[in-house]
Amino acid sequence: MDQTLPDAGERRPGPRRQRATRRRGERTRQEILDATLRVIARDGVRRVTHRAVAQEAGVNLSLTTYYFVDLSDMICRAFERFVDIGYPEVERRWEEVFGHLEALDPAWRDSETSRIRVRDHVIDRMVDDIGGKLATQPDWIAAKQHFFFEALLDPRLAALAEDYRRRLVAPFERLCRILGSADPELDAELLFANFVRFEHEALSDSGNGRLDREWVRRALARMLDWILRHG
């Protein structure tokens, strides 16, 4: 059998060039996912098309089909990137709250004044969290709302969204346990549902991106008072 050596111009790229190519490919893939997130935040999941994303990312249309099986795959991968980028900050903010609460003298539960002080500290952090995100990351909140709504219709996205929702609810449950809730799982779900509602109402046309801080404070105070007084 005749064997011929490859021409010098046909040599395979070396390891360094292969790594550089992979890095460029990963950057392009992430740029496409980031563009997908921007389209979702601005226009909703149903407006995501290969053409819209390619135009937003400034890449060739063919690349959106090269890196992803279909639109559903691209949307699901965009949601995973959304979680990977955003959740560490959620964890950091909650750990600051828990660090403060767990450093307190356990006797705080025996004093009405101390319970009110703890309640107000938690409320301050929650209100600042929502208000801060509305001021600096409204697109991020909008994307989350769009993803959760679309998850009701897309089974592939539903599993990812439910996993993320559970991760978001978990610190509320931890908070409820610290506050002495008799049913921390239920109270956490109720708190989280209202938290999402506050974000949604602030983003709505009537809210115009502004948070009614006083109303939110009153609502949270009522919920937390119930937990603190009745367990």
From TrEMBL:
The keyword Transcription regulation does not apply. GO terms for molecular function: DNA binding. Keywords: DNA-binding. Coiled coil: none annotated. Residues 1-26 are annotated as: Disordered. InterPro entries: Homeodomain-like_sf, HTH_TetR, TetR_C_31. PROSITE patterns: HTH_TETR_2. Residues 14-26 have a biased composition (Basic residues). Residues 49-68 bind DNA. The keyword Transmembrane helix does not apply. Residues 26-86 form the HTH tetR-type domain. This is DNA-binding transcriptional regulator YbjK. It comes from Rehaibacterium terrae.
